[in-house]
Amino acid sequence: MKTAKIISALIILTLLLLGPPFTFMTMAAEVGTTELSANYLVVPGGETIAKIKVENKDIKLHHFNLQATELPEGFKAYFLLEGKLTETIELNPSDKRLIELHIEAPLKVLKDSGTFKIKFLREDGIESFMPISFTINHDFALEITNGIKKLEIMNGKSTSFDIAVTNTGNKELKTLGLKVDLPYKWSLENVIPDKLTLKPGENGVLKVNVSVPSTQAAGNFVIKIKSFNEDATSSEISIPIKVIASASYAWWVIGLVLVFGVVTILYFRKHGRR
Amino acid sequence: MKQVFIIATKEFKAAFKDKVFLVITALFLLLSIISVYIGSSTRNAEMKAYQDIVEILESQGATNFPLSPEIFPLAILQNIIKYVSIIGAVLAVFLGFDAFSGERENGTLKLLLVRPLYRDQLVTGKLLGAGLVIGVLLAITLIFNTLLFSLVSGILPNLNELSRLMVFIIMAFIYMMIFYIATLFVSIKTGDRAFGFLTMMVVWILVSFVIPQLADSQRSFAYALNATNQTVTQIPSDTVISKGIEIFSPAVQFQNVGKDLLQGVSETATMNVFEILSRQALSLLYILVPGVILLFASYRAVQKEDVL
Amino acid sequence: MIVTEKLTKIYGTFKAIDDLNLTVKEGAIFGFLGHNGAGKTTTLSMLTTLLLPTSGKVSIAGLDIVKDNLKVRGLLGYLPESVMLYGDLTAAENLRFFGKLSEVEKVDVRIDEVLGLLGLIGWKDKKVKTFSKGMRQRIGIAQALLHKPKILFLDEPTSGLDPQGTKEMRDLLLKLNTEWGTTIFMNTHLLSEVTKVCTDIGIISHGRLLLADSISNIERRFPEAKSLEEIYFNIEGGQF
């Protein structure tokens, strides 16, 4: 009896000593979505945002690496926390944070539905997974392409380029427009036509006219464009534009040097060469 | 004119007797060798990463593969741009900080100024001497790097690549001379060697670090998904403010021109040298102008009595 | 040899040299005396073309120091008050550099001549930073003599020298003057040296020239004075 008691005490002591790490390993992080269902409707060529709630139920601070795994071919996913791109998240005990999972679907998808997982890898190697399932919405799908790889323009001038839009969904898309993000002080003169209606499978072309201010210094800039209506949004394309400064800047600079040169020569003439 | 060469020869010999200068020169050469190694390792790593991704995609049954990354031969030498813009500038400052203030403290400045030579000839002689030192250093760097580049990459540079390298070295020479001229001007104006050196160190920090970082903070960024690595990359976009700030940093201008010349920018990697120079004409001006203005100012400053 | 006409130097509102009219004959050893801050170094700096006069004229050997500054510099040798030279170079290397700048022909032969004259031939290949103060003064004189100047300007040449060094400097100056015919213009505030070396003196005070004449003439003009020192102090004090 005495021996049994001693052995039991030893076992309990061992468990007490070893137990805590094991006990706290479980339920260390809880993840869930803010949606009623974790199934997302994804438009081909479009982007869907899922809001994921992450909670640290442990008593210690933890770092988590976030990774989307088992993504179907062509799918891309990334995480944004408070608007900033991130691959990690740090949570204090009992802390809850909301991260945005951005899912981009390719224009051509092989299956109409699927699943992938979000892996949460803790700094001590503990992993948690959250399944995300999606269904492709073929009703409204929009593809946008631009014909030119790169533009070059002189400051103070205007330029135009074509954007091709294709309705890759099953339903008609009405009043399609363009959202054009321009660098500071650039202006969008017009988009012709202003709005477009496309039947399923139909292509359309929108001509974008942009003007660059004369004060724009030479450099590399990016114009971001996406097509949208109330039903669908296309992916965003970035068009690099190289601005070449007109020669007027160079003349100003050369003029400055000449002024200094003349002042120096006059100085030498007045005071002589010592 | 003969006196200019006499002064230049003395400056050239004196530079290679200065232990601190020799240490910085050795560091500069060592870093240029390391830059070739880093460049080639980076290139090999990129190729390997691409091959690994292709293998993974193949194993997943993919039939479409991302395009192989474009790597140009001279891009192996990219890191040398940073070393020249940072350490090359420090070297030029070390050459010039006591050009006049040291002579003044030594008492030799008066001995020079009572010689039958014009004061501007003294400035020209110092400039020529420093130019010889910097020229020799960069020539050694060019030969070293060209040989290393051929050894490591297994490619002999073609005419376009050689001409790009030559022009890059000339640009590096101009850049370092700009720093030397600025230091010479400060040395003429300040009475104390240490103060002159500190002033130029502050200028170096501003030009090499503060202004570029300030310009960077004013850029806007677009995001693009990188198909190869499955990562999101930032595409920096210049703004009026960022470009305006960069004008005040010859280091940034030099780095921009250097990247084009050493095939760091894919759009200009296959252009000929003259096209690159005409595209970067404004950057070249922004590098040259402070130096030319300070040179005029130095010639004027040395005529004044407070140079003593 | 040296003629100044209404030589003036003004710094802002301060008149450092006021209307200086001075003549130094060829072959003279001219001692320029004055208290600290009297204007001796400023005058010397103008005569050696280091400073520009605010107004007035200076001619050295008939050449204007402003218009013909390069030619004037070819004629003069200059030793400033304290000179270090290039410490990391040897005596010969220092002299070769300055000699070439002064367009000395056969500069190495000339270096040996000058170092021999100054008793430094054994130190030719030693670095100047190892030299004592007296030796550095002598090397300083050597660089001033390389191109056989017609006129030598010295600023406090015996400053910091021990008695032996002072005597050697004095003997050297006398030798240069008698054997080479070099005109010497020297700033000093040591009356004892002036009486032993100089043929002529000038006294300056607060930028104004109080007196300039040969020592013999001065002694004749002030027969009641017991010494040159008494004359100096009385002139400075306004008593003469």
Topology overview:
The complex is a heterotrimer of chains A (274), B (308) and C (240).
Chain A lengths: L1 H24 L3 E5 L5 E4 L4 E10 L5 E8 L6 E6 L2 E3 L1 E4 L4 E9 L8 E10 L4 E10 L5 E5 L4 E4 L3 E10 L5 E9 L5 E6 L3 E3 L4 E9 L7 E10 L8 E8 L3 H24 L3
Parallel strand pairs in A: 2-10, 12-19
Antiparallel strand pairs in A: 1-3, 3-8, 4-7, 4-9, 5-6, 5-8, 9-10, 11-13, 13-17, 14-16, 14-18, 15-17, 18-19
Chain B lengths: L1 H14 L3 H41 L19 H18 L4 H6 L1 H6 L5 H35 L5 H31 L3 H25 L2 E7 L4 E7 L2 H7 L3 H12 L11 H7 L1 H23 L5
Antiparallel strand pairs in B: 1-2
Helix pairs in contact in B: 1-6, 2-3, 2-6, 3-7, 3-8, 3-10, 6-7, 7-8, 7-10, 7-12, 8-9, 10-12
Chain C lengths: L1 E10 L2 E11 L4 E6 L5 H8 L7 E6 L2 E2 L4 H7 E4 L11 H11 L5 H11 L15 H13 L5 E5 L7 H17 L3 E6 L2 H7 L2 E6 L2 E7 H7 L6 H9 L4
Parallel strand pairs in C: 3-8, 3-9, 6-7, 7-8
Antiparallel strand pairs in C: 1-2, 1-4, 4-5, 9-10
- Order of strands, main sheet of chain A, comes to 1-3-8-5-6
Residues in helices of chain B, as a percent range = over 70%
Helix and strand string of chain A, N-terminal first? HEEEEEEEEEEEEEEEEEEEH
- Which structural class should the secondary elements of chain A be placed in? alpha+beta
Number of domains of chain B: 1
| Anisotropy-based shape of chain A | flat
Q: Give the % helix of chain A.
A: 10-25%
Q: What's the count of strands of chain B?
A: 2
Task: List how many beta strands of chain A DSSP finds.
Answer: 19
Percent of residues of chain A in beta strands?
over 45%
Largest interface: chains, residues each:
A-B, 39 and 36 residues
User: How large is the radius of gyration of chain A?
Assistant: 30 Å
Number of helices of chain B: 12
Q: Which sequence of SSEs, written as H and E, runs from N to C of chain B?
A: HHHHHHHHEEHHHH
